[in-house]
Write a structure and sequence with these properties.
Blueprint (H helix, E strand, L loop, with lengths): L9 E5 L6 H12 L2 E4 L6 H8 L6 H20 L4 E4 L5 H8 L5 E7 L2 H10 L10 H7 L9 E5 L4 H16 L5 H5 L1
Parallel strand pairs: 1-3, 1-4, 2-3, 4-5
């Protein structure tokens, strides 16, 4: 948080691959005008190659990636800039690392029926993660606990409606008083 400015907010759009994280995040960024980072871009090349080859990442692979994301969050928080970032953030321990020392973090968990997610992943082009890794992500996923900042919203609806629900939940929890334009445009 900037020393003399208003509190910042970091929306971490989380969920398994194919849940709609990037699409919902793009809608949020379009409405809010905040800076955006695609969490996948922070993966080291070895992680990308491992996933491309159909091998799930383990914790040892994920920790450096998550630390890099946490550093990015912290630098924006210190600069007083609110941001949106995508990150699977599948486990509580991963989310704890992202928010450790970063009070701006709020998790937007985009959920969907596994069959819908599988269909999306199977029809997606240009992404290195193959559909075969979806089951390992679903098995690893630990839903948000009641004491974690954030909300779970179904990603089965249109991206604008999902974004509207997420922003309403964020406003309810953080009292951001987003304008009607930001909340529903």
């Amino acid at each position: 948080m900037a020393a003399d400015g208003p509190p910042t907010t970091t929306i971490v759009v989380m969920g398994v691959s194919g849940s709609g994280k990037s699409t919902v995040a793009a809608t949020l960024v379009d409405r809010l005008g905040w800076e955006f980072a695609e969490g996948d871009d922070f993966h080291p090349p070895a992680n990308v190659e491992k996933m491309r080859a159909g091998h799930p990442l383990d914790d040892e692979d994920r920790w450096p990636w998550l630390r890099s994301l946490a550093d990015w969050i912290g630098s924006h928080e210190r600069a007083g800039r609110s941001v949106v970032v995508t990150c699977s953030a599948l486990k509580r321990s991963y989310r704890d690392l992202l928010r450790d020392g970063h009070p701006s973090v709020w998790f937007a968990h985009v959920t969907a029926d596994p069959e819908l997610i599988r269909e999306r992943v199977e029809h997606r082009t240009g992404h290195y993660m193959p559909p075969s890794l979806l089951d390992s992500q679903l098995a690893t996923l630990e839903p948000l606990a009641d004491d974690e900042p954030g909300a779970a919203i179904s990603g089965a609806g249109s991206p604008p409606s999902v974004a509207t629900e997420l922003l309403a939940a964020l406003d309810d929890e953080r009292g951001l008083h987003l304008s009607a334009q930001e909340a529903s445009s």
